[in-house]
Design a protein that fits this description.
The chain is mostly helical. The chain contains five helices and no strands. Helix content is 74%, strand content 0%.
């Protein structure tokens, strides 16, 4: 039996799969990002908390950015996009990029239309 056969899927396409320690690290980072999301929401919605005036107008952008980071981590590590062929990554990523660009374009267009109408 060859050395490659004993390792199974560990060395497919020249990529090694993440170790349990890597998955644990990603899980800890996801937990920290979720805690930051909760903190941003709470600070933004409680007028008596410090930094409320600073955070309140930025709650939605903060939550969107933190959620985007979490999405990238989950898709990259737990969906194994990092180890898969680039074609699968492109088939997953480019439609999302297109959807985000379309949503931003619609928001900008709507904002322009509302300003011109009123």
């Amino acid at each position: 039996m060859s050395a490659h056969a004993t390792h199974g899927h560990d060395d497919d396409h020249g990529h090694s799969h993440p170790t349990p320690r890597t998955y644990l690290g990603v899980g800890v980072i996801l937990f920290a990002l979720t805690a930051l999301e909760v903190l941003a929401y709470e600070v933004g919605h409680r007028p008596t908390w410090p930094l409320h005036a600073l955070v309140e107008p930025m709650v939605v952008p903060i939550l969107l950015i933190l959620s985007a980071f979490k999405f990238v981590l989950v898709a990259g590590f737990y969906m194994h996009l990092k180890q898969d062929s680039k074609i699968f990554t492109n088939l997953f990523v480019w439609p999302i990029v297109l959807a985000v660009a379309l949503a931003l374009a619609l928001v900008i267009l709507f904002n322009y239309w509302v300003k011109e109408t009123f």
